[in-house]
């Protein structure tokens, strides 16, 4: 039972990859605009766009990558479970390093991924989803903040026709 729960947790994490996650993968297909990278241990893949291969100038994807090349890639966008944008350029410690020294980029990948994550916008640690809150809880820091901007709203009474309160 514990193994099943653990596997469900892993599958959920892989379904909704977080921005800044460092992954291993293999080049599955090469296109003029980038490469499809199959994520190791899954049947999922992401796009490594030509502009995200290196900070240096890349004229042709096939000059730099080959099918079945092993890569370390950074998730830079994963809004929908089947669309994952990947990057190696964000793992470079110097512009164009991937073009001249792939091994160094991959050896520094963990540290560069950590730096990338530190630059991401911080989501409030106090944020809770509505279904986690008791019914009487207001999901803001204080009630005054909740009502602070009400003066900007104009409330209109919509009367039903024939009730004597019609406004024209």
TrEMBL record:
GO terms (molecular function) for this protein are: RNA binding
| Family matches, as SMART domains | S1
Domain S1 motif positions: 20-89
| Leader sequence segment | none
An example Gene Ontology biological process: RNA stabilization
PANTHER family reported for this sequence: NUCLEOLAR PROTEIN OF 40 KDA, PROTEIN PIGMENT DEFECTIVE 338, CHLOROPLASTIC
Would you tell me the protein name for this molecule? S1 motif domain-containing protein
């Amino acid at each position: 039972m514990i193994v099943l729960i653990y596997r469900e947790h892993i599958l959920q994490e892989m379904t909704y990859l977080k921005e800044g996650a460092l992954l291993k993968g293999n080049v599955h297909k090469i296109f003029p605009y980038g490469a499809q990278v199959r994520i190791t241990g899954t049947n999922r893949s992401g796009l490594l766009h030509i502009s995200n291969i290196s900070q240096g100038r890349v004229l042709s994807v096939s000059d730099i990558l080959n099918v079945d090349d092993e890569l370390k890639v950074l998730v830079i966008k994963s809004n929908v479970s089947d669309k994952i944008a990947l990057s190696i350029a964000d793992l470079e410690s110097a512009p164009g390093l991937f073009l001249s020294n792939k091994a160094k980029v991959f050896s520094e990948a963990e540290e560069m991924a950590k730096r990338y994550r530190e630059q991401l916008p911080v989501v409030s640690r106090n944020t809770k989803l509505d279904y986690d809150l008791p019914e009487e809880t207001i999901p803001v820091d204080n009630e005054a903040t909740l009502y602070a901007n009400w003066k900007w709203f104009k409330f209109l009474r919509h009367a039903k026709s024939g009730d004597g309160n019609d406004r024209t």
